[in-house]
Design brief:
- The complex is a heterodimer of chains A (about 300) and B (about 475).
- Chain A is an alpha+beta fold and about 300 residues long.
- Chain A has 2 domains: about 140 residues, Immunoglobulin-like, CATH 2.60.40; about 140 residues, C8orf32 fold.
- Chain A is built from 6 helices and 15 strands.
- In chain A, the strands form 3 sheets. In chain A, strands 1, 2, 3, 4, 5, 6, 14 and 15 form an 8-stranded antiparallel β-sheet that branches.
- In chain A, helix 2 crosses helix 5 and helix 3 runs antiparallel to helix 5.
- Chain A starts with a strand and ends with a helix.
- Chain B has 2 domains: about 375 residues, no CATH class; about 60 residues, 2-Layer Sandwich (Dna Ligase, domain 1), CATH 3.30.1490.
- In chain B, the strands form 4 sheets. In chain B, strands 3, 4, 5, 16, 17, 18, 19 and 20 form an 8-stranded mixed β-sheet that branches.
- In chain B, about 30% of the residues lie in helices and about 25% in strands.
- Chain B is α+β, with helices and mostly antiparallel strands.
- The chains are: A alpha+beta (about 300), B alpha+beta (about 475).
- The interface between A and B is medium-sized, with 22 and 26 residues.
Chain lengths: ~300, ~475
């Protein structure tokens, strides 16, 4: 099943996100929520999106509470493997990258505003004394944008980037105790700090499009709610503000709201963690073969 | 208004009509006989309610007192209007909380009460949450204090008890028909028909109407079977159903049969592991996805918990004003949030004047009454509040109405009672003309909840 969108004018990229779930015993009645469709953003246009699932599955897309397109995937027949492949084509137009500043909230206003949802504790980001201590240690001030920018820049001085050091399920307390992590963990820590300092902060999952052609990556970063209603992106893993090559796929209070695939199935055995690969490649505008291919897909969708 | 009770002495009630012949006549032996006969009737008909004994649910006949509560007809007519008003406003609030959130933006309700509530499900956002009639059945708990009706609690998730009200009436009709013939209270028998009509009003789609029960271990399993029997619909469990975004089906060996309307008896967070609690083993995956798009009716809608959260309770009078532009008819006791440290200290310093309630509890679980709490319970309340101050509220302890009940030797004793009124929302709200009067298990008891050993009595609305 696919959606098509007008072709953009910027550089086009194809993102292929492939995940394979193996089951020890056959699974039936599999029900999954899939969040893999990129969100249109300033400078980022979604040109096409296609979700492929084997075995044969029924699919529909609904928009969730946070505005994320959520694909509902149901597979009835017994299967030992569930493969979900998302193919997205996005056009990215890089702007001038003017520095932006978030406007702090008056706490009395924030508690009466729906954005407070992102300042409240959330399932993966409870209120912890260790966050208070960390904020003090880093000398961060309530409602001061420069403090947040500094926290974003300096977090990696305290927390070591170590792939494989944590699990998807690692708690915030574990991260704070061990001071290691990956992008997901740094995002959770920065969100916790921002909330502690009085900012609404949300978790963003997505892709980081490489400037040169290479294997791309799933990535996670943070957006801070400004009192004017806009959201500003901070990427603590790269110690930078976000740019157009941060392609967002889903936003939520923390990881629990944006998992790429969340599902249940009936089986006598539990499932194992999936094999996931992400490939991101710039589309050569003169590659006619690929364009033909895309066009044929579009034709099939209309039938 | 809020009176504080010095101690639990046995006193006659404050006002209130006690016209039951059996209560006034010096007929202790006759009362005892009727109490025994009705108790046997409840046992024989297996009118059970499960109580937890050492962690196991034991089904036993619900304790029954044969002296009906009598409410005069003018008073009832007023109550009907007051209840309809309240339920309408609560329904508006639910749809607003899942929709544009106007009431939050207007500054009337703190957004944290919605977004921070354990009963607000982000997974419910969608077209179905915006339709009128999120509430299909409301169970509003009322008490009389000094002759005035107050609301103690709104129950919108799975209000139970209607079948016990029906059984209370049937027992008397079987065993004391002359009493009924004399007073001719308004009949209750219309309830199942009204409930079924309200379900059908929500969808005319082809497909079954079923009652979804968590199973025989549930305290109100009798009620599930009885209401389904009276409505002529099957009782099903999660294992019988399958859902996808296209709808919901009853699994039969001959093939799946579409289900269009579900009267569920679940705490809503267990309905769908992908919509509520992901550890729910009794859920139906994608039931919310089907419901969100209007492919299946859930009654009550899983959205309802946001409106009967006890932290929201203090705001209900202003919701009535905001949505309906009317003055609230029913009063309610002051409910104090305890997040603020100074306020918490003040309240704890006057512990004996208050009752402490967990915000998400039901069945009376975790409720602590100041004057009768022991040292251990007091310490537990303080500790719980230090840990998570938003999980409990305090209310001034009220001396609620006591009604005459039949004691051991047939003499009268006065026990605290409330009244659960049932409101069925079809196009317009309809109030069951009676409801379930719940009785504390002893003269020194405060809780009337059935899970706390409380009993029931019939409620007669004069015609």
């Amino acid at each position: 099943m696919a959606s098509t969108f007008p072709i953009g004018t910027g550089q086009q990229y194809e993102i292929v996100h492939d995940s394979i779930h193996h089951y020890e015993r056959d699974a039936t009645r599999s029900r999954n929520e899939v969040r893999l469709q990129p969100l249109p953003r300033k400078g980022i246009q979604l040109d096409s999106f296609r979700l492929e699932v084997t075995p044969a599955a029924e699919m529909d897309v609904q928009v969730d509470h946070f505005g994320n397109p959520t694909w509902l995937v149901s597979a009835e027949a017994p299967h030992s493997e569930l493969r979900v492949t998302a193919r997205s084509q996005v056009s990215i137009e890089t702007g001038n990258g003017a520095r932006r500043t978030a406007i702090p909230w008056d706490p009395d206003v924030l508690v009466r505003t729906p954005e407070v949802e992102f300042q409240l504790p959330s399932p993966r980001i409870p209120e912890l004394p260790a966050i208070k201590a960390l904020a003090r240690e880093m000398g961060l001030k309530d409602g001061e944008w420069d403090s947040l920018v500094r926290a974003n820049r300096d977090l990696r001085l305290d927390f070591k980037y170590l792939p494989g050091s944590t699990e998807v399920s690692s708690t915030l307390q574990e991260i704070l105790d061990r001071r290691v992590g990956v992008c997901q963990d740094f995002a959770h820590v920065l969100i916790a700090l921002a909330r502690h300092l009085g900012w609404p902060a949300r978790y963003v999952s997505g892709y980081l499009v490489p400037e040169a052609e290479s294997e791309g990556n799933s990535h996670a970063w943070v957006e801070i709610g400004s009192a004017d209603g806009s959201w500003l992106g901070l990427d603590p893993t790269h110690k930078s503000e976000t740019r157009e090559w941060h392609v967002a796929v889903a936003v939520g209070r923390d990881y629990s709201d944006v998992s790429p695939l969340r599902g249940v199935f009936v089986s006598e055995a539990a499932g194992a963690p999936p094999e996931v690969s992400v490939k991101i490649a710039a589309v050569d505008p003169f590659d006619l073969r690929r364009q033909l291919h895309t066009a044929r897909h579009d034709l099939q969708d209309q039938q | 208004m809020a009176q504080v009770l010095p101690d639990a002495t046995v006193m006659p009630p404050i006002g209130g009509g006690i016209q039951t012949p059996l209560a006034t006549a010096a007929a202790a032996a006759q009362r005892r006989r009727l109490a025994d006969e009705t108790a046997a009737w409840f046992a024989r008909n297996e009118v059970h309610f499960g109580v937890s004994v050492a962690g196991e649910v034991v089904q036993r006949p619900i304790p029954y007192d044969p002296l009906p509560r009598i409410v005069d007809s003018a008073e009832w007519t007023w109550l009907e209007r007051a209840l309809a008003q309240r339920v309408k406003a609560l329904d508006e609030f639910i749809r607003d909380a899942y929709g544009e959130a106007r009431v939050l933006r207007a500054g009337l309700v703190p957004p944290a009460l919605v977004y921070g509530s354990a009963a607000w499900f982000r997974s419910c956002r969608g077209p179905a949450a915006l339709r009128p009639g999120q509430v299909c059945i409301a169970g509003i708990d009322l008490v009389r204090v000094g002759g005035r009706w107050l609301v103690l609690e709104d129950n919108l998730r799975v209000p139970s008890g209607a079948s016990y009200a029906l059984a209370s009436r049937r027992a008397l009709a079987d065993l004391a028909p002359e009493m009924l013939a004399d007073q001719r209270p308004r009949g209750l028998g219309d309830y199942p028909r009204r409930l079924l009509a309200a379900l059908q009003q929500r969808s005319s789609a082809e497909g079954l109407t079923v009652l979804l029960s968590p199973g025989p271990a549930n305290a109100a399993h009798y009620e599930h079977c009885e209401l389904a029997r009276l409505m002529g619909i099957p009782v099903v469990t999660a294992a019988d159903l399958v859902a996808s975004h296209r709808g919901c089906w009853l699994r039969r060996e001959s093939g799946n049969v579409p289900v269009a309307r579900i009267y569920h008896r679940y705490s809503p967070e267990y309905l769908d592991p992908l919509g509520g609690r992901d550890d729910s083993l009794i859920g139906i995956p994608f039931l919310f996805a089907a419901w969100r798009q209007g492919k299946v009716v859930l009654a009550n809608a899983p959205t309802c918990g946001v409106a009967d959260d006890k932290r929201l309770f203090p705001y209900v009078p202003s919701l009535i004003q905001y949505y309906l532009g009317e003055q609230p008819m029913l009063e309610q006791p002051l409910t104090i949030g305890l997040e603020n440290l100074n306020r918490r200290r003040e309240v704890l310093a006057r512990f004996d004047d208050f009752v402490f309630k967990p915000v998400n509890g039901s069945g009376g679980k975790g409720i602590v009454f100041g004057p009768v709490a022991n040292g251990e319970e007091r310490a537990a309340v303080s500790a719980a509040l230090d840990e998570a101050p938003q999980t409990m509220v305090a209310q001034p302890l009220l001396e609620i109405e006591r009604l005459p009940c039949v004691a051991k030797a047939g003499e009268l004793e006065w026990r605290r009672c409330d009244l659960r009124a049932f409101v069925v929302v079809d196009v317009d709200p309809w109030v069951m003309p009676g409801g379930l009067t719940r009785v504390a298990p002893g003269t020194d008891q405060w809780l009337v909840n059935s899970s706390a050993g409380g009993g029931v009595k019939d409620t007669w609305v004069e015609s």
